Amino acid sequence: MIKNLVSGLKVAFFLKCEAKDFRISYTNLWFIVLVHGIIIFTFDYFYVTKPATFSYYGLRTEGFTVVCFLFAAFITSKLFSDDSLQLSVPVLSLNGWLAPITLGKALLLSLPALFSTGADQKDIHYLLNIWVIIIFFRVMLLLSNAQALRQIIGTALLFAAFYVPTSYYYGDSFWYEDYEAQKANETSQAINSEETLEQQYILLHKQLDNIQPRKPGKNMFVVTFAGDGEQDLFMKEATFATKVLDEKYHITGHSLALVNNTATYKDLPLATTTNLNRALQTLGQKAKVEDDALLLFLTSHGGKNGSVLVDLADMDLNQLTTTRLKTILSQSKFKWKIIIISSCYSGKFIDALKDDNTLIITSARADRTSFGCGDESDLTYFGDAYFKQALPKSDGFIPAFDSAKKIIAKMEDDQKSEPHSEPQIYVGSAIRHYLEEK
To answer: How far apart are the first and last CA of the chain?
Structure first.
């Protein structure tokens, strides 16, 4: 095997060499294929920007190249009427090709200035391709005494076996830059900085300071909580819900947004359990808790254990569980509460939060997922049905739920989303009368 590598270098650098210097066997063929793969795998890793992620695309290119060489060798053997060429041609060719591919990868890695422009890259590649053609022609000379035309045809077949895979799968690599990990790392470093965490207290109280004094009569104070920071969807849904509530119930000056999103964490307080607790307690002090209502809208992914996902980059944030939310609501001192939750399995919150003075609306049953939370969406199915379609046209939160539930069922039928989410509602006896009173 080592002798084949040395002989391959002699072929590549035009040193004296004969065909008998090579050991021809399937073992030697697969060995040189493995050596090729290791060299490309290694150079690809060192060339790509870190952090890097492994890709099977490199295996695809290598496998296709081997198949092309074997096919070219088969055609060559028929052209020269010599079946032994089916094995000797790929062994000699791949050993000879090892030098230019290694040198080309090394130049790309160590002397990037040579490839500073597209024209520079083409010049280097042209030179390497010419070198490869000469190597393949020399292989034909070593293996056959046939007429020159057949040797030229054999050389062309080998070059095609080399050129077609590298061109067809151009850009394929064993390693690619892990953009998601890099983004998460950069975001995590920024958000986890001491300055940013300290800023959260300032941002929260800036919003709380903007809360206007209550007006005579019943008031409604609204808090939106966009828990998952990996998707813009939940930020968009919380923002849209606030807009609809303001148009219908005139809550300007009585609303507050807690948002997890990399685009807003410097401007808006984060959606954390700590910020939620502080916000609700402060609003309870500004409100007349025996007369005014708290509307809390939570939107995020949900867990089967009964929790709303609280997530931003790699921050270690407490999850909003049923128990934790019950405690936070209790500490707020609001008597009248409207809790709307858009997340999978959100029905689990009903048993934990229900009482005579509370209205609870959830986007799904306790054992069901909800739908429409893809990256391409601006609203979930629930957000679209309830806030966009039903609430603006309905006479209150409860009739809006009845309409939205039918709309959601149709959406899920149309999209064949199974099993249906089956949104849930709990209406305390006292809050039903509270909401009916003007």
So the answer is: 91
Short-list 433, 231, 264, CA closest to 343: 231
Name the residue ranges covered by the structural domains of the chain: 2-177, 193-436
Distances (CA, A) of 182 to 50, 52, 132, 177, 179: 8, 9, 38, 8, 5
User: Residue 199 class from Cβ within 10 Å (0-12 exposed, 13-18 middle, 19+ buried)?
Assistant: middle
Judge whether 279 and 258 are in contact, CB under 8 Å: yes
Q: What is the mean pLDDT of residues 21-40?
A: 92
Could you tell me the pLDDT band of residue 43, with boundaries at 50, 70 and 90? confident
What pTM value is reported for the model?
0.59
Cα 279 to Cα 258: distance, rounded to the nearest angstrom? 9
149-183 as b/e, with b when 16 or more CB fall inside 10 Å?
Answer: eebebbbbbbbbbbbebbeebeebbbbbebeeeee
For residue 372, which of 339, 414, 412 has the smallest C-alpha distance? 412
Q: What is the DSSP letter of 311?
A: B
CA-CA distance, 134 to 146, in Å (whole number)? 17
Q: For 310-344, how does the pLDDT look when each residue is reduced to its tens digit (9 = 90+)?
A: 998 878 889 999 999 999 999 999 999 999 999 99
Q: Which two tokens stand for residue 306?
A: 């009964």
CA 225/CA 235 separation, integer angstroms: 8
Please, are residues 95 and 4 in contact by the beta-carbon 8 Å criterion? yes
193-436 CATH: 3.40.50.1460
Quote the CA–CA distance of 55 and 221 in Å, as a whole number: 51
SS3 297: strand
